[in-house]
Amino acid sequence: MDYKVLVLDIDGTLTNSKKEITPRTKDALIRAQEKGVIIALASGRPSPGIVHVAEELELSKFGGYVLSFNGAVITNYQTKEVVFEKVLPDGIVPILYNESKYAGVSIVSYLDDVIVTETPDNKYIEYEAFLNRMKVVKVDDFVDTLRSPVTKCLMVGEPELLVKEEERLKKKLGDRLNVYRSEPFFLEIMPQHIDKAYSLSKLLKHLNLTKEQMIACGDGFNDRSMIEYAGLGVAMCNAQPEVKAVADLVTLTNDEDGVAMVVEDYLLKEQK
User: Domain residues for 248?
Assistant: First the structure.
């Protein structure tokens, strides 16, 4: 198959345990783009949290795409054109805030280039800030702060609490929202129908390509849909068992240049 698009999750997939792109992986991805392969970074991160990764891979030069907020926003990184966007329903933020209080977990959202929350000292919020290289801003009234259209909220807390809250939210609001964990301690609350596969279908339509021309690599719960959807769905060896189970291929771990191996074997083979 002549693959045209390579979709990459970031954390646990493209980056290693140090949150770095290794020289081998970067070299392989630059060479793939030089051959005309389109790279799309698909992450639960907010848009500002992906910028440094997109810059490192030179997406502005080669014309790659960024799918942020688990695909709620698709941006042509070269032109900065937003080719798709979907936001949370009006009036949902107060409900989510009250749910977080009931569940005993913290809630965050994103405003411009900062993370906003009432509980900035939470260790999981600090980790979210580290991942995205974004500042956390403490607000006195979470609901009042988020009066403009909101793309995503994130509940964070101990995994056993989020398992229960995920089930509650799906039963209560599943007809209005998409709710799932990207990590055991991260519960993503997204607009209805939004997941990586749905958004990638929008991107492929924009590019006039088919899913058979796409490779997707990931490791987390929120990567499962795109791995099932892609022409070649690749799970990292460090992926969740449920993700490996639906993959066409299991590559090496993110600490063993698993992405580079896929690129070399499926996109650069003729150059070997």
Answer: 5-86+194-271
